[in-house]
């Protein structure tokens, strides 16, 4: 990640204060104020630590709560772990003939397929907007980008009514199709293409007689791969986290993603508190894949793209 | 001659290419963004006229309603209280969220920051948790029967608060959104900070500037574009608040079905089956969103694409 190297130069450029004050106490001339940097560090470090603990609190809770049986959930101290994790997992897996795992698969399908298609469409559009000069370019871009401003539900209700007219509601398509076009993905791909694909390479390919689409597929797209992975990740998380669209579109719980599935379980839980245990275990399982994806692909979270400051 | 014609043909293909390449995005955008907006606008001007007892085929006909639905929406006290609640929610949430994100980003960007990697990953982690799951987790942390706070207070014989009660639930929702949003904004700002060349701080440090002065005089002004960008996206997300209160509803009675304007849209469209009122409210919300964020967006665009044009 580009930011990593920038970070090391930033800290590396002030070696005197760092090395002398903290790591070499044997130099008497620098020991006149030995504890100042230490004390100055204390408050910022504590603030960061509090922030980190605040963010970890609910995650720690769900880890502990998923080990509790139905009765200890309401009686024992919140953060006291218990021994029912395996039992909870089995109960969740067998609940409704294993519908929970069906929801997980559905979510993976919606997010995986949707994000791949979205990255492909965004990549091609972003490349075109960055590399071609044509009439209507900035109008098209501005209209597409303005899509970011339209609140989801403002779209979701008419989308539902329109898809109902063509009989597509309560199908996989009703969740997949509206998730493909991403103004944000196009915006990111445009910035990335502008920075990563040199005009000279495109010209050279043209001179060699490549077709326009061939240039994109064989020359530009490979250069844009890191940016496209970023678009994929953002869209994957967006679809994975989207609750409203599937909530409105789907009626059959066989097609639910895990977010909607757990919500319906929670809703039933007010009448049957025993279900809370399954909801909690399900919540834990549903965040594991995303957290794993997230930590393993950390270097692709190129959020610098958002502020437009890309160095490809 | 033949080379001239092929060249002309290529030129033609090259002018057609960008339109062909943009076709998939444009078609999907038209089908799933523009047409629904148009349809919502159309529905918002319609209503159902019931003749007779409203029974049988043809007893309910859709007719032009003019601005009737809008008049009803604008004079609806539920919508007003929901709308004002969301504006208050945004006015509280956005500054706190971006303030904390900025604070964390600046603390991470200090030379010799400790626990940097741990703090950065932990604070960014909630971004990987869907809002509905986050609301569910916090919901159980609020629920008096399972809350650690209530457990501890009860232990010491102190009065137990109801974190999901009438007054507190507003802040409970703000907290969930804050938890989910700080990390992402922090990473955006932190990455922007990392892109600033370190030499800019050198002379300031030599002149005896403290890190706090450097943060206020150099870093924050240079972060302005990123701050504008994060503000726009936070504002849009704020006005759409729906999932968090929706997820808390099964756990508490203090959230009505029209607690936020979007919840009212959902209720009108699906529970009371008045899609015309829902459409009019949607259009109003979209208009307010556009008005509030358009100025910001223009500024962002000029910053991001100023050099490229």
UniProtKB/TrEMBL annotation, chain A:
<keyword id="KW-0813">Transport</keyword>
<keyword id="KW-0472">Membrane</keyword>
<keyword id="KW-1133">Transmembrane helix</keyword>
<comment type="similarity">
    <text>Belongs to the binding-protein-dependent transport system permease family.</text>
</comment>
<feature type="transmembrane region" description="Helical">
    <location>
        <begin position="219"/>
        <end position="240"/>
    </location>
</feature>
<feature type="region of interest" description="Disordered">
    <location>
        <begin position="1"/>
        <end position="39"/>
    </location>
</feature>
<feature type="domain" description="ABC transmembrane type-1">
    <location>
        <begin position="104"/>
        <end position="297"/>
    </location>
</feature>
<dbReference type="InterPro" id="IPR035906">
    <property type="entry name" value="MetI-like_sf"/>
</dbReference>
<protein>
    <submittedName>
        <fullName>Carbohydrate ABC transporter permease</fullName>
    </submittedName>
</protein>
<feature type="transmembrane region" description="Helical">
    <location>
        <begin position="108"/>
        <end position="127"/>
    </location>
</feature>
<feature type="transmembrane region" description="Helical">
    <location>
        <begin position="40"/>
        <end position="64"/>
    </location>
</feature>
<feature type="transmembrane region" description="Helical">
    <location>
        <begin position="139"/>
        <end position="163"/>
    </location>
</feature>
<feature type="compositionally biased region" description="Low complexity">
    <location>
        <begin position="1"/>
        <end position="13"/>
    </location>
</feature>
<feature type="transmembrane region" description="Helical">
    <location>
        <begin position="274"/>
        <end position="297"/>
    </location>
</feature>
<keyword id="KW-0812">Transmembrane</keyword>
<feature type="compositionally biased region" description="Basic and acidic residues">
    <location>
        <begin position="21"/>
        <end position="38"/>
    </location>
</feature>
<feature type="transmembrane region" description="Helical">
    <location>
        <begin position="175"/>
        <end position="198"/>
    </location>
</feature>
<dbReference type="Pfam" id="PF00528">
    <property type="entry name" value="BPD_transp_1"/>
</dbReference>
<dbReference type="InterPro" id="IPR000515">
    <property type="entry name" value="MetI-like"/>
</dbReference>
<keyword id="KW-1003">Cell membrane</keyword>
TrEMBL record, chain B:
<dbReference type="InterPro" id="IPR035906">
    <property type="entry name" value="MetI-like_sf"/>
</dbReference>
<protein>
    <submittedName>
        <fullName>Sugar ABC transporter permease</fullName>
    </submittedName>
</protein>
<dbReference type="InterPro" id="IPR000515">
    <property type="entry name" value="MetI-like"/>
</dbReference>
<comment type="similarity">
    <text>Belongs to the binding-protein-dependent transport system permease family.</text>
</comment>
<dbReference type="Pfam" id="PF00528">
    <property type="entry name" value="BPD_transp_1"/>
</dbReference>
<keyword id="KW-0813">Transport</keyword>
<dbReference type="InterPro" id="IPR051393">
    <property type="entry name" value="ABC_transporter_permease"/>
</dbReference>
<keyword id="KW-1133">Transmembrane helix</keyword>
<feature type="transmembrane region" description="Helical">
    <location>
        <begin position="124"/>
        <end position="143"/>
    </location>
</feature>
<feature type="domain" description="ABC transmembrane type-1">
    <location>
        <begin position="83"/>
        <end position="296"/>
    </location>
</feature>
<keyword id="KW-0472">Membrane</keyword>
<keyword id="KW-0812">Transmembrane</keyword>
<feature type="transmembrane region" description="Helical">
    <location>
        <begin position="222"/>
        <end position="243"/>
    </location>
</feature>
<feature type="transmembrane region" description="Helical">
    <location>
        <begin position="21"/>
        <end position="42"/>
    </location>
</feature>
<feature type="transmembrane region" description="Helical">
    <location>
        <begin position="86"/>
        <end position="108"/>
    </location>
</feature>
<feature type="transmembrane region" description="Helical">
    <location>
        <begin position="163"/>
        <end position="193"/>
    </location>
</feature>
<keyword id="KW-1003">Cell membrane</keyword>
<feature type="transmembrane region" description="Helical">
    <location>
        <begin position="276"/>
        <end position="300"/>
    </location>
</feature>
């Amino acid at each position: 990640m580009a930011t990593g190297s920038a970070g090391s130069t930033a800290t590396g450029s002030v070696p005197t204060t760092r090395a002398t004050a903290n790591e070499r106490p044997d130099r008497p001339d620098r020991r006149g104020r030995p504890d100042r940097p230490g004390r100055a560090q204390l408050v910022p470090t504590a603030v960061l630590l509090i922030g980190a603990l605040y963010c970890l609190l609910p995650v720690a809770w769900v880890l502990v709560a998923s080990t509790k049986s139905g009765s200890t959930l309401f009686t024992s101290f919140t953060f006291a772990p218990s021994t029912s994790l395996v039992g909870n997992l089995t109960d969740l897996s067998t609940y409704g003939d294993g519908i929970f795992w069906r929801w997980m698969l559905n979510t993976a399908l919606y997010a995986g397929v949707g994000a791949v298609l979205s990255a492909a469409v965004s990549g091609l559009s972003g490349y075109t907007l960055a590399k071609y000069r044509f009439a209507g370019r900035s109008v098209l871009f501005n209209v597409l980008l303005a899509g970011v401003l339209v609140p989801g539900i403002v779209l979701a209700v008419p989308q539902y009514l329109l898809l109902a007219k063509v009989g597509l509601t309560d199908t996989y398509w009703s969740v997949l199709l509206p998730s493909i076009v991403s103004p944000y993905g196009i915006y990111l791909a445009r910035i990335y293409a502008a920075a990563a694909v040199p005009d000279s390479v495109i010209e050279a390919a043209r001179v060699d007689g490549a077709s326009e689409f061939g240039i994109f597929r064989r020359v530009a797209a490979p250069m844009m791969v890191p940016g496209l992975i970023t678009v994929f990740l953002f869209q994957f998380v967006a679809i994975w986290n989207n609750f409203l669209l599937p909530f409105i579109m789907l009626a059959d719980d066989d097609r639910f993603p895990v977010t909607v599935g757990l919500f319906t379980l929670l809703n039933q839980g007010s009448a049957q508190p025993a279900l809370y245990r399954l909801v909690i275990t399900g919540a834990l399982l549903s965040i594991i894949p995303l957290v794993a994806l997230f930590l393993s692909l950390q270097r692709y979270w190129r959020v610098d793209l958002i502020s437009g400051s890309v160095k490809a | 001659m033949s080379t001239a014609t092929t060249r002309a043909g290529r030129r033609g293909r090259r002018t057609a290419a960008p339109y062909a390449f943009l076709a998939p995005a444009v078609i999907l955008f038209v089908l799933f963004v523009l047409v629904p907006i148009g349809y919502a606008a159309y529905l918002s001007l319609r209503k159902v006229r019931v003749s007779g007892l409203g029974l049988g085929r043809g007893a309910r006909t859709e007719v032009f309603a003019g601005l009737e639905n809008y008049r009803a929406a604008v004079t609806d006290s539920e919508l007003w209280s929901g709308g004002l609640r969301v504006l208050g929610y945004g006015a509280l949430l956005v500054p706190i969220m971006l303030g904390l994100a900025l604070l964390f980003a600046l603390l991470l960007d200090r030379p010799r920051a400790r626990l940097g990697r741990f703090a950065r990953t932990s604070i960014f982690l909630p971004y990987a948790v869907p809002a509905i799951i986050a609301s569910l987790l916090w919901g159980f942390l609020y629920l008096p029967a399972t809350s650690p706070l209530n457990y501890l207070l009860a232990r010491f014989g102190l009065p137990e608060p109801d974190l999901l009660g009438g007054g507190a639930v507003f802040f409970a929702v703000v907290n969930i959104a804050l938890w989910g949003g700080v990390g992402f904004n922090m990473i955006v700002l932190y990455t922007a900070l990392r892109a600033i060349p370190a030499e800019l701080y050198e002379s300031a440090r030599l002149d005896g500037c403290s890190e706090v002065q450097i943060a206020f005089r150099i870093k924050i002004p240079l972060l302005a574009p990123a701050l504008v960008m994060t503000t726009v996206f936070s504002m849009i997300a704020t006005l759409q608040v729906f999932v968090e209160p929706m997820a808390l509803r099964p756990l508490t009675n203090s959230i009505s079905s029209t607690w936020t304007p979007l919840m009212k849209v959902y209720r009108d469209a699906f529970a009371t089956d008045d899609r015309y009122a829902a459409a009019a409210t949607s259009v109003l919300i979209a208009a307010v969103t556009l008005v509030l964020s358009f100025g910001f967006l223009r500024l962002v665009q000029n910053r991001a694409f100023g050099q490229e044009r």
